[in-house]
Design brief:
Elements (H helix, E strand, L loop, with lengths): L22 H8 L12 H10 L7
Length: 59
Amino acid sequence: MTGAERTLKRNARDDMYNVLYMMEAAQHLAGMRAAHTQRRWSADEDRILLKLNSPAAPQ
């Protein structure tokens, strides 16, 4: 479906198949938009992110 090769193999613990789609293939299957956008962070978004990464921010 996505053109990406998959190796099917059962996991050792449960003897079940784990299907993993990553990055663009997963986004395509989920109907999501592309991960890369040209939008720049706003000053408010910068301030919020910097505040969240502050040692003074509640954990």
